[in-house]
């Protein structure tokens, strides 16, 4: 590993050489500046760390720290300030504002070494996180600017007729990078403040395809409370994306919890006024518990696949799903079982009174879906 370089700013030559000798014996390269003006020249060499005496004869240590942190080319360099115990509260506050750490004399050299290593490690982690953030945000911006989001559609079948009552749009990023996973992609968009941009593209492209190629039944569009909190959800908003409200079912997903309950309820009511129906996704998992159902008062409840998987082997899962079905039936809410992969699961949810089903057994999400699915149905 390459030796890390420290710029030591100290006007006491004896003390400076002693400290430098100790650090060099621990595999650091040390460049010494004996004054503030000299330090400001030497800092251009971009050392890994600056170790600076706060009292210098020509330029105050705090001023040097301020200049370093104010220069975009140098601001990443960590600074440890060497102080005396008699430093005033005002001076300390200034040092805290621009220095990454400070250590008061007299100190043991081993303590100084430990402080240096901690600050360098912390800076490395911080720099790494910053670089990773820059990589992710650059890729997100590329996907958004080129609208590299592709809608896939999965039919939702009526349990009674085994014909589709609608399709769910599942948007996926069209990239071969680390954001190719839809879960990671949407999580990154939320984390870095780009979720609304992503969801608007996803909605617009899904509806445009549905209108041209499907045009029947309901269109389920995934949506988070975050998206509702940050957009007006009125007629003008939908029309701005070229979306007709009548076939829409807004499917609330588990990615974020409801934060502003009053605003959230008001905007859901706006959607209902336009004829939009509401579904709560993943009931039985994540934030989507029955108290959320009671608050949202949806038209549909989608039972999480964790409760459906191998339900034919699990009496507890049967009892839970039965309770959800009974609750929804009494509340005039339609139930949809997600994640149906086996005929035995389909048979059990039918027996329990589920209204509709969705899963790989019936149809996988596909990029190309036509009106024909509404005529054909599912024949097993």
Strand content: 15-25%
What's the architecture of the largest domain, going by CATH?
A: Alpha-Beta Barrel
- What letter string, H or E per element, gives the SSE order? EHEHEHEHEHEEHHEHHEHEHEHHEHEH
The number of domains is: 2
What CATH calls the topology of the largest domain is: TIM Barrel
Q: What would the average pLDDT be, to the nearest integer?
A: 90
Q: Give the overall shape, derived from the CA principal axes.
A: elongated
Total strands: the figure is: 13
Look at the structure and name the CATH superfamily of the largest domain: EAL domain
CATH structural class of the largest domain: Alpha Beta
Number of helices: 15
Report the major sheet.
8 strands, mixed, barrel
**Termini Cα gap:** 62 Å
Features:
380 residues; Rossmann fold; TIM Barrel; alpha/beta; eight-stranded mixed beta barrel; 2 domains
């Amino acid at each position: 590993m390459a030796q890390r370089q420290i710029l030591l700013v100290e006007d006491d030559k004896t003390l400076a050489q002693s400290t430098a000798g100790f650090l060099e014996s621990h595999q650091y390269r040390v460049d010494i500046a004996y004054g503030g003006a000299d330090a400001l020249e030497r800092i251009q060499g971009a050392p890994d760390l600056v170790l600076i005496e706060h009292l210098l004869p020509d330029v105050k240590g705090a001023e040097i720290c301020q200049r370093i942190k104010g220069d975009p080319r140098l601001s990443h360099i960590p600074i440890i300030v060497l102080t005396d115990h008699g430093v005033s509260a005002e001076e300390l506050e200034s040092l805290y504002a621009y220095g990454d750490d400070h250590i008061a004399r007299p100190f043991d050299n081993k303590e100084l070494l430990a402080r240096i290593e901690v600050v360098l490690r912390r800076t490395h982690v911080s720099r790494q996180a910053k670089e990773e953030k820059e990589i992710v945000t650059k890729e997100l911006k590329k996907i958004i600017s080129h609208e590299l989001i592709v809608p896939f559609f999965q039919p939702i079948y009526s349990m009674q007729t085994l014909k589709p009552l609608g399709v769910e749009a599942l948007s996926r990023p069209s990239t071969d990078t680390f954001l190719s996973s839809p879960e990671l992609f949407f999580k990154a968009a939320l984390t870095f403040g780009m979720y609304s941009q992503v969801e608007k593209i996803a909605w617009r492209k899904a509806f445009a395809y549905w209108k041209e190629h499907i045009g029947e039944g309901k269109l389920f569009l995934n949506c988070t409370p975050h998206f509702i909190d940050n957009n007006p959800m009125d007629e003008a908003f939908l029309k701005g994306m070229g979306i007709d409200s009548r076939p829409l079912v807004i499917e609330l997903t588990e990615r974020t919890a409801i934060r502003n309950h009053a605003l959230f309820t008001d905007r859901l009511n706006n959607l209902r006024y336009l004829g939009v129906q509401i579904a709560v996704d993943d009931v039985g998992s994540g934030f989507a518990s029955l108290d959320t159902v009671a608050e949202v008062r949806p038209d549909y409840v989608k039972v999480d696949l964790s409760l459906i998987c191998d339900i034919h082997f699990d009496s507890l899962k049967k009892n839970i799903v039965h309770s959800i079905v009974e609750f929804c039936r009494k509340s005039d809410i339609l139930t949809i079982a997600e994640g149906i992969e086996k005929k035995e699961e389909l048979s059990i949810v039918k027996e329990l009174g589920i209204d509709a089903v969705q899963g790989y057994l019936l149809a996988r999400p596909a990029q190309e879906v036509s009106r024909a699915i509404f005529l054909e149905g599912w024949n097993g």
